[in-house]
Every structure is written in C-alpha cells, then in structure tokens.
Design brief:
- The chain is an alpha/beta fold.
- It has a domain of 170 residues: Metallo-beta-lactamase, Chain A (4-Layer Sandwich), CATH 3.60.15.10.
- Helix content is 37%, strand content 25%.
- The protein contains 10 helices and 14 strands.
- A hairpin with a 2-residue loop joins strand 11 and strand 12.
- Helix 6 packs antiparallel against helix 7 and helix 9 crosses helix 10.
- The model has no long low-confidence stretch (mean pLDDT 96).
Length: 257
Amino acid sequence: MRVVPVPCLKDNYAYLVCDGARAAVVDPSESAPVLAAAAREGVTLEQIWCTHHHLDHVGGVEDLQRALPGVAVVAHQSDAERKRVPCVTRAVADGDTVALGALQARVMHVPGHTTGAIAFVVGGAVFTGDTLFGAGCGRLFEGTPEMMHASLTRLGGLPGATQVYSGHEYTVSNLRFAAAVEPGSSAVTTRAEAAAAARAAGQPTVSTIADEQATNPFLRWGQPAVAAAARAAEPDVAAPGDAVALFAALRRWKDRF
C-alpha cells in the first residue's frame, strides 16, 4: 500500500490510498488537486472514502463522480440516510470492510466531531478525518464528550506503529497546547521541533499511534500531570478519576486556548 497526501483548501488533506495502479481517495474537499495527483501518480481512482459529511471533506465528491463515472462513494450509513454526503453508493457501519484490490479497509465508527464520523484502518495506517489529529482532536460539533472520549480510546488502542493520517495540518498549533498541558514533557518538545522542521520543508506531519500516546493530551487524560492540568483549568468541573470529565475539561480548554 502506498499513501499520497494531497493538500487541499487552506490546511486540509485528501489522501490517495494506492494498491498498485488502483486507488481510493479519502476526503476530497476539492476535485482538481485530487485528479492532478492521481494523474501524476499514475493511478486510477475507483473509490471515494468519506470520514464525515463536512463540506471541507466532501466538497469535491460530486465533481469527481462526474469526472470518473462509476467511482464508488463510501460513507457512514447515517450520513447516507440523511443525504449529508453526496452520491453515496455504499453505506457502511462499524466493523464493515471496504476492498480496494488486495487491500481491506476496516471501518471504525468514531462519533464525536460528528455523529456519523468514521475512520478507515488499512495496511498499517488509519485515516481519522477530524476525530484524531496530530497532537489533538476535533471539536465536538454534534457528538458528546462521552462519544469522543470513547472514539479516541478506540483509536488510541490501535497498534503503536499504525500511521495516523488526519484531515488537517494542525500539528504545530496542537503541540503548543500540548506544551501548555505538559510543560515539562521532553516528548512534546522533541515532537514540536520535528513538526516545525517538517512544515518548513513543506512536508506533512504524519505520526504514529505511539507518537499520539506519548504527546497528545486527548489520549493522555489518565496521566497524572495531564489530569492535574485539566483539574487546574476547571477545578469545579474536572472531577478526579472521571475520565470523561477530564477529557471534556481538556477539550473546553483547547477551545479557548
């Protein structure tokens, strides 16, 4: 499997997932960069995998389907039923698999950012949309703290070597928040330096689940320093030992950071 990040809009990524000359695209917010990347890479786009319904992730779907008759469009069943993702040809649920050549992508339902959010786990990688970011997580536009906490816990339980491909390039700014939560963390400092260097070189900041476990405060609510910081941010709300309350306090802190 080969993954090709495709920068779109201001700070979005679509991704080509390639099995030889066959490819799927994850979250095409616009069509032109995706079509250009497919031509450059010499692959045929057969499928569109949508992690959630927001326009900055599905805005290019209709144009791609017009340009590529017969291309399949995969989205969560709730987004398909409510027609929040255009042109869906296959509605999926948690645990379903999507085949692309020899690849088998497993669908994880990860509500929180939206209620129909899904991730695709395939070939040692996970495409997380706006649920799990580099050193961060998405805002809770539709879901609850309980939903997002459970979704992040599932994603954080994937093998440590799993490559994380998220929907936006937010890593540098997210690490500034991580440093505020854990100011003494050498792991955060090291990762922030590496992320800044990658961006200066025009490269995306792809991480692993192990990286996220070591530096992402939204996967580290159980660590004493992170829990203490969450309680300090919201002493009347973030109850000691209450995982969801600690997560919610961190998310609200990030919202106003």
